[in-house]
Design a protein that fits this description.
Helices cover 38% and strands 18% of the residues. By secondary structure, the chain is α/β, with parallel strands linked by helices. Among the domains are: 153 residues, Beta Barrel (OB fold (Dihydrolipoamide Acetyltransferase, E2P)), CATH 2.40.50; 167 residues, Rossmann fold. Strand 21, helix 20 and strand 22 form a beta-alpha-beta unit. The structure holds adenosine-5'-diphosphate and magnesium ion. Magnesium ion binds next to helix 11.
Amino acid sequence: MAQLSDPLADILGEKAGAALAKALELHTVSDLLRHYPRRYATGGELTTIAGLDEDTHVTIMAKIAKVELRKMQQRKGTILTLTITDGRSELSCTYFNQPGLVKELVKDRHGLFAGKVSKYRRALQLTNPQYLLLPDEDHPQACSSESGGPFGLAAVPDEQYFTRPLLPVYPAAAGVPSWTIAQCVRVVLEALDEPEDPLSADLRAEHRLISLSAALRGVHLPEDTAEVEAARARLRFDEALSLQLVLAQRRQADAQRRAPACPPRENALAAAFDRRLPFALTAGQVDVGREVAADLAETHPMSRLLQGEVGSGKTVVALRAMLAVIDAGRQTALLAPTEVLAAQHARSLRELLGPLGRAGELDSAEQATRITLLTGSMSIGAKRKALLDIVTGESGIVIGTHALIQETVQFFDLGLVVVDEQHRFGVEQRDALRGRGRDGATPHLLVMTATPIPRTVAMTVFGDLAVSTLRELPRGRSPIVSSVVPVLEKPAWLERAWMRVQEEVRSGRQAYVVCSRIGDDEQTDTQQETAAVLELAAELAAGPLHGLRVEVLHGRMPGDEKDAVMRAFAAGEIDVLVATTVIEVGVDVPNATAMVVMDAERFGVSQLHQLRGRVGRGGHAGLCLLVTSAPQGSPARERIEAVASTVDGFELAQLDLEQRREGDVLGVAQSGRRSSLRLLSLLRDGDVIAAARVQAQAIVDSDPRLEHHPGLAQMVKSALDGERVDYLAKA
Ligand code: ADP
Ligand code: MG
């Protein structure tokens, strides 16, 4: 008999085992049983041919309508053309040099055909599709294109397969069609010993779940759709629980780490700063400030995510946290994703702190600290000075880009790491700084993001962080009005857009124009119609924006040049900044009120939302014009219209999630590995994830290392190996 961990070759034979390993990376019994059907065909029902997509691998049930064998004209050899039908549409299948197939492929036989859909002379077709012909009155034997291959007899499913009410259709690969997988699964299930259930009977009863053994059988060999649902519910819960157990263990491990406690001090820097703030904090800022202060006072490290709309005032919250840590005699680091942003943070923190941030200078205040900027493009001399200030503890606030991580930066006593725009950094990067505390202590961590995070993502990808949210914008903030400028249908609207920019500038305001590319490289075909920073800036200055001070900003400019342009824009010396998405995150110029985004279809939902957050940051109303040539009704156009129709970041984040593939969210697609979350959907399974989270926390609270839950420990191990968890967290 067989166990879940047994190699497939032991049960199916060497050749079949090797074929499954090669084609689908299935090695063990468990691998195969977790290769779930993509869908289920109901017996005898033909698959609709009209809806097939080009370039996809399909498995369809059809009837042979016509068979034609002829000699090739130019070369030696034969072409067998098969026309298959669903009763309405037809699809042609071609086999080259296999004349013998006419014995099996005869008119009126029903069967499954599998292959990649291609287009030939504007018609869809399958080339050399694999087939499984069903038995019928004239042909008592089923037959398959695979019977001579590595699977031998297993390539042709036995009779029971055809009489099933629901035929499982598996994700298949060349050489291993769906029906062969089905047959292998049947053989394996028959040999399988009842597997031990990692969920106790109590747990199953509480969550109304069937046993693992019933679920594995039910998902592969269901009698009806209710059985499929029950099986999937159980397997989905296992995935959610595995994930949440890992996250709960990680939270637990964090809590075991030692951190420098930084309780609030009276009459120190933080208090002095609050007194000199030119505005009242919003209620949200006060609340979150309290949560953060409580975390910082603890002797284990804070791990907190601060999310809030662009302009909701996250920086002030972070700065107050930093000052509390400085008051406790420690240093703080602020990690920004770009040099522009790092430089801007340095400027705005200096301004907010005033004399409190000028330690060592003539007009400094008594408790003052020092702000140090460290970026890759600084001169060697400036860098050396910065490194010295950091290692001696002179500087309380260190602001930098990746350089902070990469360079051999030594802190005197690092107590808090603030990461701005987390999605630009991986977990390893944020943890690199966390390893630099004094005497093995772990600095506190505050991660800031303006990209709102849907609840399910917060519970998974960011599941090891506590979450604080700033929901309101500071008073005086004006709403942003967004409109779509459809250049295909309304070319005149673009002219009108430039006139609006002129008007804004005439009333003393400034504007951004955003392009999807720089335009200093050779053009590729797909880029030809899109606007480029360098060309558009020249065109605008000579034409529609003649007389205005137009400058460019993009990522390939040297650091000091970028900085000079941003400074000039902030000082009002530039009217219109034509830029790439370098301005996407955090750039804060309150006098900028208008933004024109060219080729808006080139940007994602969250990105557009981020971009438009750059305007309307002062007391004046913001305007965002989304220029696009995407035709009405296209998905891209709908996406842009959705962005124009709401400023609710959470709604947009949900939309963004719907538009991305699940794998992308988990960061798996990029890494090219298969997700072990197969049934669990971040989009649809919020409730399951929430229930699993509560359950996992309870289990880990009582048994942190799962020593008394060997089944669960094993489930976690096989579902998510160590690397997988890293991928999850990095997404
Ligand atoms: P975020 O980083 O969340 O996008 P910032 O912290 O940069 O937002 O704040 C945006 C602007 O609003 C800054 O100029 C900041 O000084 C200002 N601001 C922050 N909090 C308040 C407040 N409570 N009242 C008025 N203005 C505020
Ligand atoms: Mg910010």
